[in-house]
Amino acid sequence: MSAAGGKLAGAPGAAPGAATARRTPFVLLVVVLLGSGLIALLLLNSSLNQGSFELSKLEKQTDELSDERQALQQEVDQLSAPGALEQRARELGMVPGGSPAFLNPDGTVAGVPAPATGQPSVAHAPGPLPPLVLDPTPAPAPPASAEASAPAPAVLPSASPLTPASGTGAATTPAPGR
Asked: Which of the pair, 144 or 102, is modelled with greater confidence?
């Protein structure tokens, strides 16, 4: 302050409280801006940390699901191996089929059809038993008096007689419904 009546040397004609009064809004503005900036940084940091925790949780879940998928794929590979398929088919009463015969579009048969060989193990198979018409074991012979009066029923549809077509070994059968 100067000796000339308590006035500031840098502010001619201004009261000592007027300079402080002009700086107060500016200081408050700076403090509010800094405070709001710090609060915004704190919220941003919290949000990033929460996202990081969620990301690590999802990565862990992805690893667990990947391991489970790999275990299931190994199980599928084991169950679809030829030996496992053959064993399961035998448990269901299936037997290996022989050489295949194919029905051509014109109604001729390529190859010689034959019933499957082998005995199915239906005694230990789960589920219902196959119908008797599919049973490959021959039926007991009926008494002699009944045999003369009634013709014997065919057991397997593939046991029907076939007539050879041209000398290729293929046989023809009438198409059903024609």
From this structure: 102
What token pair was written down for 175? 């198409």
> Residue 55, class by beta-carbon neighbours within 10 Å (0-12 exposed, 13-18 middle, 19+ buried)?
exposed
Taking a C-beta distance cutoff of 8 angstroms, is the pair 159, 143 a contact?
Answer: no
Instruction: Between 19 and 3, name the one with better pLDDT.
Output: 19
Quote the mean pLDDT of the chain: 73
Three-class SS state of 166: coil
How is residue 59 written in tokens?
């990565």
Residue type, 34: L
Q: Rounded distance, CA 115 to CA 99, Å?
A: 10
Provide the angle, in degrees to the nearest 10, between the axes of the packed helices 82-91 and 16-79.
Answer: 60
pTM of the full structure: 0.38
